[in-house]
UniProtKB/TrEMBL annotation:
Coiled coil: none annotated. One of its GO terms (biological process) is regulation of DNA-templated transcription. GO terms for cellular component: cytosol; protein-DNA complex. Keywords: DNA-binding, Phosphoprotein. GO terms for molecular function: phosphorelay response regulator activity; transcription cis-regulatory region binding. This is Two-component system transcriptional response regulator. Residues 1-71 form the Response regulatory domain. The modification 4-aspartylphosphate is found at D5.
Amino acid sequence: MVLLDIWMPDCDGITLLKEWAKNGQLNMPVVVMSGHASIDTAVEATKIGAIDFLEKPISLQKLLSAVENALKHGAAQIETGPVFDKLGNSAAIQEMNREVEAAAKRTSPVF
């Protein structure tokens, strides 16, 4: 999990977030924060892949809640992430992936 500030001395958080997304490195939950935020920046950050956007000053409760949500999201990604990506993307693999995902959502036993 990453807490990412928008304004940093050598780079800005949005550029870094875009770079991670472009290079396939956005594989962890990211909470973006800023003391000089705009709605446009918050929307852009979440569209790129940030889990949450916090405006400074941040209360301890808000920060803890955002961290908890991000960690839950990260755990869910591990459980339901793109497990089959390494197998390829042929029609047969895509169909198998759909069937496994559908089976995972069922509450009854699958045989």
